[in-house]
């Protein structure tokens, strides 16, 4: 089985979570939608290329190994905007057009980020995947659009360093990538097991995960409806593997 392995490291990252009111939380690792968003940006897919985004979503499986959670940080924001009804009626194309509508109000929000986090990604191609893993790896090395860790203000701290490996299981493929890139300093983390690490992944169909099954979760990070800006519900398999040292 061929897998594309890559590393996502950023000084600041924010991977989205269910948003309630003024609170904008973050998952501790890249979500499936975030991983596919990185790939789409690397390939140069525009947001309105719905058919291509749907093909990307259906054609590939994703796994994420959290190598270092990093330190959680909550940032307080105040944002000037206009009522939602006004936005829907006028459909401004830019922020300048939005502010020119008048009737301004201030919205407060608290946004969660993770500092100095690092994850390893694994991608595998399903039968209907339109791009080869080699094409995706090439795009990661020379992305068409800028890549960032969840928000446009969060640039990546290191290249993704994509590599295609052949392995009998998902766990064997992930073992080929060290837990931290060379030169990245280690620091202690609270609540981190020294013996094993969790891997969140799509169901492995036609091959073994090689992971110790731990639990199943449902997350709202599947294929998005961009008109309503809602993410679909999907099943996530969670397993563990021994921690990989540098």
What does this structure look like?
- This protein is an alpha+beta fold.
- Helices cover 20% and strands 35% of the residues.
- It has helices at 32-43, 50-59, 84-90, 95-99, 133-141, 170-175, and strands at 2-13, 23-24, 60-68, 71-81, 105-125, 163-166, 196-201, 212-219, 224-225, 230-231, 234-242.
- Strands 1, 2, 3, 4, 5, 6, 7, 8 and 11 form a nine-stranded mixed β-sheet that branches. Strands 9-10 form a two-stranded antiparallel sheet.
- Strand 9 (224-225) and strand 10 (230-231) form a beta hairpin.
- Helix 1 crosses helix 5 (133-141).
- The longest helix has 12 residues, at 32-43.
- The chain starts with a strand and ends with a strand.
Summarize this entry quickly.
The chain is an alpha+beta fold. It has helices spanning 32-43, 50-59, 84-90, 95-99, 133-141, 170-175; strands spanning 2-13, 23-24, 60-68, 71-81, 105-125, 163-166, 196-201, 212-219, 224-225, 230-231, 234-242.
Features:
246 residues, alpha+beta, Alpha-Beta Plaits, 9-stranded mixed β-sheet, two-stranded antiparallel sheet, 6 helices, 20% helix, 35% strand
């Amino acid at each position: 089985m061929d897998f594309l392995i890559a590393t996502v490291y950023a000084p600041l990252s924010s991977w989205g979570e269910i948003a309630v009111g003024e609170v904008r939380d973050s998952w501790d690792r890249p979500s499936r939608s975030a991983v596919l968003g990185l790939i789409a940006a690397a390939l140069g897919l525009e947001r309105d290329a719905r058919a291509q985004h749907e093909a990307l979503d259906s054609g590939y499986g994703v796994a994420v190994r959290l190598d270092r959670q990093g330190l959680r940080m909550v940032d307080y924001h105040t944002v000037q905007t206009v009522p939602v009804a006004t936005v829907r009626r006028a459909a401004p194309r830019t922020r300048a057009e939005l502010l020119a509508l008048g009737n301004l109000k201030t919205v407060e929000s608290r946004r969660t980020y993770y500092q100095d986090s690092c994850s390893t990604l694994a991608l595998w191609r399903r039968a209907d995947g339109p791009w080869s893993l080699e094409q995706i790896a090439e795009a990661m090395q020379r992305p068409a659009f800028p890549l960032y860790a969840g928000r446009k203000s969060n640039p990546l701290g290191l290249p993704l360093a994509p590599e295609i490996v052949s392995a009998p299981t998902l766990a064997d493929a992930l073992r080929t990538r060290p837990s931290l890139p060379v030169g990245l300093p280690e620091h202690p983390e609270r609540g981190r097991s020294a013996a094993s690490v969790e891997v969140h992944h799509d169901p492995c169909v036609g091959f073994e995960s090689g992971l110790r099954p731990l639990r199943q979760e449902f997350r709202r990070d599947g294929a998005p409806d961009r008109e309503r800006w809602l993410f679909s519900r999907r099943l996530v398999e969670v397993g563990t593997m021994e921690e990989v040292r540098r």
